[in-house]
């Protein structure tokens, strides 16, 4: 897949999946905009991947804040003049606890990033792509957006919300030759899974990891680059007639 001179924004670019998406796109000659709340981490990613000022831009962003989202879109347009791809990937796992113990503060935090962040990103990127009459968007949901998981109500429900947003956005964008899809990772070998393992079993994180591993029919965690491969396909011209779709990357874990 060739992304010569295409401009692609990746939110959550310092995370496990985000970083591998940036790597794959940069290797395919894309110009990449790295968006993350952790400024030091995205600068480190730029250095590690050998990105230059000519082919990349790093922006510190709180995706739960609408003005902050507008800012990364404005900076992208100011530097590169267009947006060809958007990986709406930033997300958090939230607490692991029974529904009745969830606090308003926890709700606002998870929904601020996982739902508002996705919606605001689309709000400011879609008009640009519609005006161009071209573009491809991948929203990162999760297999948790397809099922229910005890003790993970905020993560599950927020990822269900991403699926709903994707369906609406894809229909509104289709007439403008803009494609919108979701990728739904299962258990992937990232820092987020380390947090989930610790949250679900604070005193037995390694046992939780082993249990998750055993539950996957392929008997292993997925790797971030395996998710990045699917995202790159969906952004590419190879997927030119694919929109409003959901792609699970989960080793057959959730057969739904």
From TrEMBL:
Top EC class, one word: oxidoreductase
EC number: 1.1.1.-
InterPro entries: NAD(P)-bd_dom_sf, Sc_DH/Rdtase_CS, SDR_fam
Any one GO MF annotation of this record: oxidoreductase activity
Gene3D superfamilies per the UniProt record, alphabetical: NAD(P)-binding Rossmann-like Domain (3.40.50.720)
Domain of life: Bacteria
CDD domains, A to Z: SDR_c
Keywords: Oxidoreductase
Sequence similarity: Belongs to the short-chain dehydrogenases/reductases (SDR) family.
NCBIfam families: PRK07231.1 (NF005559)
Protein name (database record): SDR family NAD(P)-dependent oxidoreductase
């Amino acid at each position: 897949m060739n992304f010569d001179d295409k401009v692609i924004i990746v939110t959550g670019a310092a995370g496990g999946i985000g970083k591998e998406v940036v790597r794959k796109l940069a290797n395919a000659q894309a110009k990449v905009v790295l968006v993350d709340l952790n400024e030091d981490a995205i600068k480190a990613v730029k250095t590690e991947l050998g990105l230059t000022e000519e082919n990349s831009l790093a922006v510190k962003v709180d995706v739960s804040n609408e003005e902050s989202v507008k800012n990364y879109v404005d900076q992208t347009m100011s530097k590169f003049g267009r947006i060809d791809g958007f990986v709406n990937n930033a997300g958090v796992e939230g607490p692991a606890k029974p529904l009745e113990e969830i606090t308003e503060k926890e709700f606002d935090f998870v929904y601020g990033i996982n739902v508002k962040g996705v919606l605001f990103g689309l709000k400011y990127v879609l008009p640009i792509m519609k005006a161009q009459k071209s573009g491809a968007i991948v929203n990162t949901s999760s297999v948790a957006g397809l099922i229910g998981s005890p003790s993970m109500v905020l993560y599950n429900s927020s990822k269900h919300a991403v699926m709903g947003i994707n369906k609406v956005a894809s229909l509104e964008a289709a007439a403008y030759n803009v494609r919108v899809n979701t990728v739904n990772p299962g258990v992937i070998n990232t820092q987020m899974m380390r947090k989930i393992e610790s949250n679900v079993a604070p005193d037995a994180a390694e046992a939780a990891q082993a249990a998750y591993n055993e539950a996957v029919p392929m008997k292993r965690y997925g790797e971030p680059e395996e998710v990045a491969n699917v995202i790159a396909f969906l952004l590419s011209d190879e997927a030119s007639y694919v929109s409003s779709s959901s792609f699970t990357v989960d080793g057959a874990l959730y057969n739904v």
